[in-house]
Design a protein that fits this description.
The chain is an alpha/beta fold. The protein has two domains: 127 residues, ATPase, nucleotide binding domain (Nucleotidyltransferase, domain 5, 2-Layer Sandwich); 170 residues, Nucleotidyltransferase, domain 5 (2-Layer Sandwich), CATH 3.30.420.40. The protein is 37% helix and 19% strand. It has ten helices and twelve strands. A five-stranded mixed sheet has the order 3-2-1-4-7. Strand 11, helix 9 and strand 12 form a beta-alpha-beta unit. Helix 1 crosses helix 2. It is globular. The chain binds zinc ion.
Length: 335
């Protein structure tokens, strides 16, 4: 009779190859806008270490790739392991290619592959608003919430949705195109052919358009005088006038806020987020826009008394969200 053999001695833990990602990593994030490109170098925690920017070449993919590669070269350092690029349109989640961007003169370009060749590092591409949502999720106003919706109100409108700690991409990468969610059926015509899409009815462009219209209708009003003084941005003039208590300006921001609340409630009813975050340049309008948005949202959220509250927060990041988020996407996907 043999005694049971003793258990084998524990084998030494195999030594893992030293991963470069165990060292403090940095990444470059690039936000390609319709008029300018911004690049940042950030830590894995999203702290910005360097910045550069240039105008957006809109004519060809090669020119755009050259501009992005030039910015990456200006900000990258030795610890940079990956590059993330947010693009202003529909990005194929599988290939990283740009399918379509309304502000660029080309489409269907394999930008992910072209950029990786140009910069010599792994490159992650995604929609710019998805990147901004990732920044807010990882290190911004949505930190700690695995389900969130971000809407950026800029010249246009962008949206990113995080579900269970992952960006919602849909079948192709084209999910969360909230810009064409109709919030005002008799509203202004959108380039997509429909009327009252959120992106034209209630974005920064809408604030500017309504400001110019109000100024034309009442040229002697304080708002008209502010816009006439040569302000290149009628939206900024509306915000400035609202801060001074101008009735017309407050009405414009209230209207845009109310329509924004309609869109936010639709998204919250669809995705059941823990928080809804509003970002982008229009947030500088502050409470005159956000308060009506919150009120409109609360009126339209389904069964508000029978669910936990869904706070409407303002974003941590103003102009950096897309670039910081793109960098963090690159860090997270390279791990
Ligand atoms: Zn549309």
């Amino acid at each position: 009779m043999t005694s049971p053999s003793p258990p084998p001695p524990p084998s030494p833990r195999p030594s893992l190859p030293l991963s470069p990602f165990l060292a403090p990593v940095e990444a470059v994030g690039v936000d390609v806008g319709a008029t300018k490109i911004a690049a940042v170098r950030v830590t894995a925690d999203g702290a910005v270490l360097a910045r550069a920017r240039c105008a957006t070449p809109r004519r060809t993919a090669d020119e755009l790739v050259g501009a992005v590669a030039g910015l990456v070269a200006r900000v990258r350092g030795e610890r940079v392991t990956a590059v993330g690029v947010g693009l202003p349109g529909m990005v194929d989640a599988g290939t990283g290619a740009l399918a379509f961007a309304p502000g660029l003169e080309f489409a269907r370009a394999p930008l992910g592959a072209l950029l990786a060749d140009a910069v010599g590092l792994p490159v992650v591409t995604d929609n710019d608003a998805n990147a901004a949502a990732w920044a807010e999720y990882r290190v911004g106003a949505g930190r700690g919430h695995d389900h969130l919706v971000l809407v950026t109100l800029g010249t246009g409108l962008g949206c990113g949705v995080v579900v269970a700690g992952r960006l919602l991409h849909g079948s192709h990468g084209f999910a969360a195109e909230a810009s064409h969610l109709i919030v005002e059926p008799q509203g202004p015509l959108c380039e997509c052919g429909n009327r009252g899409c959120w992106g034209v009815a209630a974005s920064g462009a809408a604030v500017a358009r309504l400001g110019r219209r109000a100024a034309a209708a009442d040229p002697e009003s304080p708002l008209a005088r502010l816009i006439d003084r040569g302000s290149p941005d009628a939206g900024a003039a509306v915000t400035e006038a609202a801060r001074a208590g101008d009735r017309q300006a407050l009405e414009i921001l209230g209207r845009v806020g109310t329509l924004t609340g309609i869109g936010l409630a639709a998204l919250a009813n669809l995705f059941d987020p823990a928080v809804v975050i509003v970002g982008g340049g229009a947030v500088t309008a502050g409470e005159p826009l956000i308060a009506p948005a919150r009120a409109s949202f609360a009126r339209r959220l389904y069964a508000p008394d029978d669910r936990p509250p869904v706070p409407v927060l303002t974003a941590r990041f103003a102009n950096d969200a897309g670039a910081v988020g793109a960098a963090l996407l690159a860090v997270d996907r390279s791990r």
